[in-house]
Amino acid sequence: MLDWLGFGSHDHAASSHGHHNHGSGPHGHTHGVVDATIATTDRGIWAIKWSFVILAITAVLQMVVVVLSSSVALLADTIHNIGDATTAIPLWIAFMLARRKPSPTFTYGLGRVEDFAGIVIVLIILFSAIVAGYQAIDRLINPQVVTHLGWLTAAGIVGFLGNEAVAVFRIRVGREINSAALVADGYHARTDGLTSLAVVLGALGVWLGFPLADPIVGLLITIAIFGIVWQSARAVLTRMLDGVEPGVIGEIHHAAQHVAGARIVDAKARWIGHRLHADIAIAADETLPLSEANKITTALEDELFEHMPALAAANIRFSAGHEQHALPPSHGHGEHDGHKH
């Protein structure tokens, strides 16, 4: 199962020790057979492809009803669905580029293109919000009669079902391959599904004799889209600035507690696309022979990959420094670090 998700093969980088292979447990794989990135990006491309198909069909069906009913709420929802389908394009390009092997120029590969795709997605969502908002405000100023309320209700329900299906695809696969862009896009689709249900409320308001219910719902949908822009932008920019979730560093320290002699003095981590890379310094015991030191780094690698399935590379080194270094609060004690990074 780990191999299928792309987490069974790792690029270990324990500097100066040369351990690139696990001989036991769930990580007993030989490197160079199947590149983990290909497995995960194939999975990502599969999710994107089906998301695009579902949303494209949903948008076409809704557009037909927009023409029939003149509903600006449904128009806003349709614009959003078109924008959501369009986001499949930068994601697909990013996943394809991520499959390329590292080069002398791009020594870590092109995984960061995925973060750039996330920014493009945020801009697409922002554009759809501006267009939908303009249409809703214009309809409030210049009201029009909304017709075909039955079809309008059906279109709202279709929009909800289509977006929920896409949300399930993107969130599930995004979590499997640890892609912030894909997960963000999935939550965007889920919220879009809820805005589709708002179209139904607008149709009900018009049916009850309140014609402004339609543009008001359109405006509420616009506000919801702006909320998605803010949330998605925060998540993607955090990754682009080498930010990690608070629990990542804590998990590195937790893994080290299972290895005798692996006293961490510094730990850093960053995401490159959907692959986590860690740089770890452990306290050096100068009395240890090289063979024992190698056993410690190998054991720590095993524990790290056991505890962190999204980890792609662990660069472990020894530190002989004596400066105080704070650990995460959950560990409640200090260690030492004498390296500049």
Automatic annotation (TrEMBL):
Location (main, coarse): membrane
How does this protein sit in the membrane? Multi-pass membrane protein
- SUPFAM superfamilies from the UniProt entry: Cation efflux protein cytoplasmic domain-like, Cation efflux protein transmembrane domain-like
Ranges of residues in domain Cation efflux protein transmembrane: 50-238
The protein's UniProt keywords, in alphabetical order, are: Membrane, Transmembrane, Transmembrane helix, Transport
Q: Name one GO molecular function term.
A: monoatomic cation transmembrane transporter activity
Q: Where in the cell is it found?
A: Membrane
- A Pfam short name: Cation_efflux
- Spans through the membrane: 52-76, 82-98, 119-137, 149-171, 192-210, 216-233
Q: One GO cellular component term, please give it.
A: membrane
Q: Which family does it belong to?
A: Belongs to the cation diffusion facilitator (CDF) transporter (TC 2.A.4) family.
Q: What is this protein called?
A: Cobalt-zinc-cadmium resistance protein
